[in-house]
Automatic annotation (TrEMBL):
It comes from Lolium multiflorum (Italian ryegrass). One of its GO terms (cellular component) is nucleus. May act as a substrate-specific adapter of an E3 ubiquitin-protein ligase complex (CUL3-RBX1-BTB) which mediates the ubiquitination and subsequent proteasomal degradation of target proteins. This is BACK domain-containing protein. GO terms for biological process: response to red light. Pathway: Protein modification; protein ubiquitination.
Length: 303
């Protein structure tokens, strides 16, 4: 008891060490199965963890718990009380929710997980409301910070008439944009319109003539969802600037017949250093991007 304060300082330093050393999941994925419960909790409590998606972390925790706790009841207890609270369900994908909700594995407390997912989906569907019926799963509705995901969520508004159209928003923190220099690119999760999936991609482009790096934004069709039709779209990239409005930065049209990437190598028309220092673009440290995509025509491909 006389050393309680010193022990807490030591524990805090150990957690900070783990978080910093294992910030990039790609660099420690072969070691993760050997981590202790305390180590897993420390690493997954971090917002700075770079990983493909939150879905990936959920499946990782289930896999880790099955390897470390072979006894069913103990594993259920560890998952419910220690591991599931680390999962940021509000940043998981619909595909993962569908898979989890239809899962019949005994080591998952399905009633508990279903409440968490239901709360998240209702809050996403009605973001301006605070429904009292969600009191039992209120924690799932609280705003939880995104991690440094490789595949980013987008906020999407979809229209069916007079023609299929989506307006999708993606926010990137300044630190995430700075990482694009080394990570090369950041992808969105697919967003859907007229039965097709599209992906927004941000990447760093080097201008060979000036030898300067610039911020590029691109659009491609999701090859997993690509059907047998050619899709002609009109699209516009925009960014929010101070004080509040979105400003169009690039627009074009394209007929997608495969996974070809289209877009703009230098959407802001300034060198990378100038772009990163622009506080009119990084509003409170966040870059707000928008893509407005309208499907003009779909035709069957010739075989």
């Amino acid at each position: 008891m006389s050393m309680a304060a010193e022990v807490q300082l030591l524990k805090g330093a150990a957690k900070e060490f783990l978080v910093n050393k294992y910030k990039d999941y790609n660099k420690f994925q072969h070691e993760v199965m050997n981590f202790s419960l305390a180590g897993i909790e420390a690493i997954l409590s971090s917002t700075d963890l770079y990983v493909q998606s939150e879905d990936f972390l959920y499946y990782l925790l289930v896999k880790w718990s099955r390897a470390r706790y072979p006894e069913l009841e103990e594993r259920r207890k560890i998952l419910s009380s220690h591991l599931l609270p680390l999962v940021r369900f509000s940043h998981m994908t619909y595909k993962a929710f569908q898979r989890i909700l239809t899962c019949t594995d005994n080591d998952i407390d399905h009633e508990h997980v279903t409440k968490l997912i239901t709360g998240v989906l209702l809050c996403k569907a009605y973001p301006a409301h605070k429904p009292g019926v969600l009191a039992a799963c209120a924690t799932s509705c609280l705003p939880v910070a995104e991690r440094a995901y490789k595949y980013r969520h987008m906020k999407v508004v979809a229209f069916d008439k007079p023609c299929p159209q989506v307006i999708a928003y993606m926010d990137l923190k300044r630190e995430e944009c700075s990482q694009v220099l080394t990570l090369k690119q950041i992808f969105s999760h697919p967003f859907h319109v007229a039965g097709q999936g599209f992906i927004l991609m941000a990447r760093c482009h080097k201008d060979e003539q000036s030898d300067l790096y610039r911020f590029g934004l691109f659009l491609c069709i999701d090859p997993v969802l690509k059907g047998s039709r050619a899709v002609t779209v009109e699209y516009e990239f925009a960014a929010r600037t101070r004080p509040r409005q979105f400003v169009s930065k690039f627009n074009a049209s394209h007929t997608f017949t495969d996974g070809f990437v289209v877009g703009c190598d230098e959407i802001f028309l300034v060198p990378w250093s100038t772009f990163m220092a622009n506080d009119d673009l990084f509003i409170d440290g966040v870059l707000h991007l928008r893509v407005d995509l309208t499907v003009v025509e779909q035709t069957e491909l010739q075989t």
